[in-house]
Design goal:
Elements lengths: L4 H4 L5 E10 L2 E11 L4 E5 L6 H9 L6 E6 L8 H4 L3 E4 L11 H9 L8 H7 L15 H13 L5 E5 L7 H16 L3 E5 L3 H7 L2 E6 L2 E6 L1 H5 L6 E4 L6 H8 L3 E5 L2 E4 L5 H13 L7 E3 L4 H8 L43
Parallel strand pairs: 3-7, 3-8, 5-6, 6-7
Antiparallel strand pairs: 1-2, 1-4, 8-9, 10-12, 10-13, 11-12
Length: 348
Amino acid sequence: MTISPATAFERPAIEVVGLAKRYGGTVAVDGLDLAVHRGETLALLGPNGAGKTTTVECCEGYRIPDAGTVRVLGLDPRRDAAALRPRVGLMLQEGGVYPVARPAEVVQLFASFYADPLDPDALLERVGLDDARRTRFRDLSGGQKQRLSLALALVGRPEVVFLDEPTAGLDPAARHRTWEHLRELRTDGVTVVLTTHLLDEAEELADRVAIIDHGRLIALGTPDELTHGDRDELTFTARPGLDTADLGRAVDVEVIEMRAGRYVVHAPNDPGLVARLATWLERHDVRLGELQAGKRSLEQVFLGLTDEDPPADAQGPRPPAQVPPARSAGSPSDASPRQRSDSPEVGA
């Protein structure tokens, strides 16, 4: 994402400073700092229990922080809820729609809450629900429910949208159609916070990616910054069980089979190394599957960063250059549309 000089001096759409939240003896969020620029799409990633959902719920006004401040469009999500609610759209992962309600009825109802909503009929067609407009919610497929949730998040023309797993349960065609909707939001200048477990989705859609683990921000940057680490590493795939000792002697560096058929060479990426590797593979009649040098997938970065037991002194976001190689719908009503018990799930 390219931020204009004028935008650079604007206040971020979302500002989180020193956010902390504890459930009993469990720390869900631990002094988190994060800013989301206006018009930016930010992917918020982390393993289960990392603190993603708690962070987003504090931004939405559904949780009260124990410490720190949260501002959305310059407003406090709880104190200024009445002023903020019409400007924000929420897409939850499930729940929030009456089982016998029909998509056309629900979108029309939500549209009535806003001063300048999108046209409900056009919106249903846009998200691919025109044929299901009279189908009861309980009879919709999982993917159709997701598309209805997206429609309800967008009907009020929000300035900020929080999307929780927006493509969960969608077939590939519907998934790519949803991606197009999200790209249109960015074109329209809407700020999007996207939580997803689909790392290719984050890599495809996000201007920046924030990775949270154990309640702390451990990496922040563009997908390109995060996937171009500063360690020298070459990985390749071939048939499992190669003689890595002999291959290592041939390329003058240790070769490790990380898992069946995937190999890593920790050495500077230079043409001589690639040539020696190719020569050995040819000599042993081994077909090369794929070769990757100087860039890793976001999944590799994510798995390398989110260890089960991080060092006790780990703190703060890691600058991108130091990355080691290695919720149904938003409602303007006072009641939260989240379906949750009085005891919050630790692990959200």
